[in-house]
Amino acid sequence: MSLAFDVLLAFGVVFTAAAALGTHDRVASIAGFVVTGLLVALSLVRLGAPDVALAEAAIGAGLTGALLLRSAWRLKPAESRVSPPIDRIIVALIAVCLSGALAWAVYTAPGAALYPALVSERLAESGVTNPVTAVLLNFRAWDTLLEIAVLFVALILVRIVAPAHPQPVVLGELMLPFARIVVPMCAFLAGHLLWQGASVPGGAFQAGAILAGGSLVLMLGGFAVPTPRLLSWGMMVALLGLAVFAVAALSTEALTGTLLLYPDGAAKIWILMIEALLTLSIAAMLCLLFCGMPRRPLK
Amino acid sequence: MILNFLAFCTLVATLAALPRLILGPTAADRIIAAQLAGTGTVATLIVLGTADNAPALFDAALVFATLAAVSGLAFVALQRTRL
Amino acid sequence: MTSELIYICAGSGLVGLAFYRLATCRDMLLRVLSLNVLAVGIAILFLASARDAGMTDAVPQAFVLTGIVVLVAVTAALLALAEQIDRQRDE
Amino acid sequence: MTTVLHALGLTLTTFGVSFLLIAALGVWRLPDVLSRLHALTKADSAGLALIALGAACLTGRLNTLLTLGLCVVLVALSGVTIGHLIARAHLSEGDLE
After folding, report:
1. What does residue A293 show for φ and ψ, rounded to 5 degrees?
2. How many CB atoms sit inside 10 A of residue B72's CB?
3. Which residue in A172, A178, A185 is closest to D70 by CB distance?
4. What is the radius of gyration, based on Cα positions, of chain B?
5. Which residue from A73, A264, C61, D37 lies 20 to 30 Å from C55 (Cα-Cα)?
6. What is the DSSP string of A127-196?
7. Phi-psi map region of A48: left, alpha, beta (phi>0 left; psi -120 to 50 alpha)
8. What three-state secondary structure class fits C57?
């Protein structure tokens, strides 16, 4: 039965993605993409990666869907110049070959499981018991620091290219009770995910995405109008996480002689402090990526 | 065993929303289908969590439910800004 | 191992699909969508191959998590650029 | 006692799943937007609530009850709000075929 479930799920993922990419209706492609994201998250749960599944559901399906929807009406559909059938057949053949080769290569690749032993050996001294959090914020914290820097670079690009479009929307009387329940729930859930990320699936990225989702509800419902002032505060918060992470990296260098090697026994405190600020910063960055940045008028 | 079968049935219900998503003449139909698929994944996670006796999946279901609410709202709100 | 094989097929199917769409489509939004589908397919492949005796390796999980977060930043940047291209085409 | 709870849980979950299946069928087959909306809200409120209640009976732990309850509240709330918004947008557009 469980095998039938897996087969149906895998088929559903591919079918939904095909539906999303095959149609020219904007709402259909984006709705299809969001459903694909949800099904992919479900299959990641089946693959034993609940941390990744949470991030995929929150960021891959939810926030990317909102981003695409925001742009869908600003981008005009391209002139429908269909490629000639012969081209499409050739491309389809190449794509099938690529898929087959990829599946064969991954399936027959020699499995040299090097990391699980290393991770479980050092897990006790990492300060947390969730191996994924341990890898993200202790063993390979350097990667995570650079990842936040990448997010910030994307934010700067958006700031240069896209001006903000504050659009107040009137959605009716039911929005207020909805926001009154959903937004505190988001804040609560973010805190819960952040705290439990030390031992079970969860962590700063998932919590930040949920928090960003909550503020998206505020913006879409028209309760928080993204004024330039608010957006620059958001920018400050976004910078704060990166700055604190960088300062933490430098101070661990000073304290222990190695970049991001936490002092003995205090790893949990360090990780939790960094994660808490990262959550706020990631939420602010995701929000700003959604609503764009105000452009200063040229003097 | 029964629970595994029920999880399979919930997945079937989730995927049964897809024809409407592809066909659905208006945008409203497609948003309805996406919303139903979101509810279906939450239900699938809950049933799976019960079947495998893994309450950690209930937390995942809560995250899915929150995000389903946010993306559903985004669909409706961003749809209306165009009108 | 069979359930991994199923997901490996799904992941490579997604990659093939996204590749086909990237090559044949001129619509900017659909291209960004295909790029996202491509990344998701690679994530599934990565995690399916990281499974060993019922346990999933933590290091690939962390990589994929990082990848998802970077992907949303890239998507936002690409969409901002696409909007800018559209605006300049209008003028 | 545990057997009774187990049987109750299975029954409730089965009912919830059949609600979901019927709602999916309804969304697929019903003729217009408003009747499809009607089918969707049944799945959001009754279907998921029954499934969560069944799951709570089956796991039999009190702390999961809170998580499941919040799940149900959130999905029901978003179903109600989004259903209302879709219906309003649909009616104000006036494309009631």
Report:
1. -120, 150
2. 27
3. A185
4. 15
5. A264
6. S-S-HHHHIIIIITHHHHHHHHHHHHHHHHHHHHH-B---------TTHHHHHHHHHHHHHHHHHHHHHH
7. left
8. coil
Q: How far apart are CA A36 and CA D60, in angstroms?
A: 33
Q: CA-to-CA distance for B69 and D74, rounded, in angstroms?
A: 7
What CATH number matches the domain at C2-90, 1.10.357, 3.30.70, 2.60.40, 1.10.287?
1.10.287
Q: Give how far the C-alpha of residue A94 lies from the chain's centroid of Cα atoms, to the nearest Å.
A: 31
Kindly give the interhelix angle for A26-46 and A2-22, rounded to the nearest 10 degrees. Answer: 160
Q: Which of A275, A276, A254 is nearest to A263 (CA)?
A: A254
What are the tens digits of pLDDT across the range A183-242? Answer: 999 999 999 999 888 888 888 889 999 999 999 888 888 787 777 788 888 888 988 988
Nearest CA-CA partner of D23 in B14, A35, B72, B7? B14
Residues of chain B contacting D77 with CB distance shorter than 8 Å: 69
Domain boundaries, chain B: 2-82
Question: Which three-class secondary structure state does DSSP give residue B25?
Answer: coil
Enter the tokens of residue B6.
């029920």
- Whether there are 3 or more C-beta pairs closer than 8 Å between C and D is no
Q: In the predicted model, is pLDDT for residue B47 greater than 90?
A: yes
Which pLDDT value is given to residue B81? 47
User: Cα separation of A120 and A268, whole Å?
Assistant: 17
Element (H, E) at A199: none
Q: How far apart are CA D92 and CA B80, in angstroms?
A: 11
Asked if residue C15 lies in contact with residue A75, where contact means CB atoms within 8 angstroms, the answer is: no
Give the model's pLDDT for residue A169: 63
Kindly give the residue spans of alpha helices, DSSP state H, lying in chain B: 2-15, 18-23, 27-51, 56-82
Domain boundaries along the sequence of chain A: 1-75, 82-112, 115-299
Q: Does B52 touch chain A (CB under 8 A)?
A: no
Give the least confident one: A11-15, A132-136, C73-77, D11-15.
Answer: A132-136
- Quote the minimal CA–CA distance from D1 to chain B in Å: 19
- Return the domain boundaries, chain C: 2-90
Contact A175 D81 (CB under 8 A): yes
Q: How many CB atoms lie within 10 A of CB B26?
A: 17
Contact residues on chain B for D24, CB-CB shorter than 8 A: 12-14, 16-17, 36, 40
Q: What is the ipTM of this complex?
A: 0.94
What's the CA gap between B38 and A234, in Å, rounded?
30
Q: Angle of helix C2-24 relative to helix A26-46, nearest 10 degrees?
A: 160
- Decide if B62 contacts D71 (C-beta within 8 A): yes
State residue A191's pLDDT score.
92
* Chains in contact with A, counting 3 or more C-beta pairs less than 8 Å apart as contact: B, C, D
Residues of chain C with C-beta less than 8 angstroms from the C-beta of A162: 80, 83-84
| B2-82: CATH architecture | Orthogonal Bundle (1.10)
Here the tokens at position A285 are 């960055």
